[in-house]
Specification:
Helix content is 71%, strand content 2%. It has a single domain, classed as VKOR domain (de novo design (two linked rop proteins), Up-down Bundle), CATH 1.20.1440.130. It has 219 residues and is mostly helical. Helix 2 packs antiparallel against helix 6. The longest helix has 30 residues. It has 8 helices and 2 strands; from the N terminus they run αβαααβαααα. Keywords: Disulfide bond, Membrane, Oxidoreductase, Quinone, Redox-active center, Transmembrane, Transmembrane helix.
Length: 219
Amino acid sequence: MADESPAEFENTEAVAVAEEAVTREPGNFWLQRRPISVAASWTLLVCGVLGMAAAIALTLDRIQLLIDPTFTPACSINPIISCGSVMVTDQGKFFGFPNPLLGLPAFAVILVTAVLSIGRVRLPRWYWVGQAIGALLGQIFVGYLIFQSIYRIHALCPYCMVVWTIIPIVLILSLSRALPDSGLGRSIREWLWILLPVYYVVVILMGTVQFWDYWKTLF
């Protein structure tokens, strides 16, 4: 292979200098290309795959229910663990169409982000801010659906619970890339990871207490 020419070397060095300037120059805060670890990249990929799989499964089951109202989804296991009970409610089509249709484009974005990150593409901060905002809106919607499922519909959808599990992880990973590298930014990142297991414990306790009369019949 031929050696790199002086002109090519100068161009490469110029690009490197320009990228370094974008990373460090305060005026280019939104253009700073944010690093992400290999572990975080693969975690995003797993979340994207699981979320997309859940959204596709729910969408297909919802279509089947429209075709055949007597259809019983495979995830309808018992009176409490029942996707079908959730799908047919008004909460299951909050915006006038089945909620899983929101997940298809949303998790497609997560998958693209994960693949780019695994490929060591450093995405700009504005991208991570946008994804963090989207994940935050998703988390708010998930919180609403958790409350409705447990206290109003009185049923739990397994595929929905997959989404309940992964959305906060996506939010934290996205927000961690969006936050500035200041002392405050680092503190927020640390607290987010501390709050994640608290979120899981609270949701598990809600479901356990609300449906305890049923759970205890299984033992």
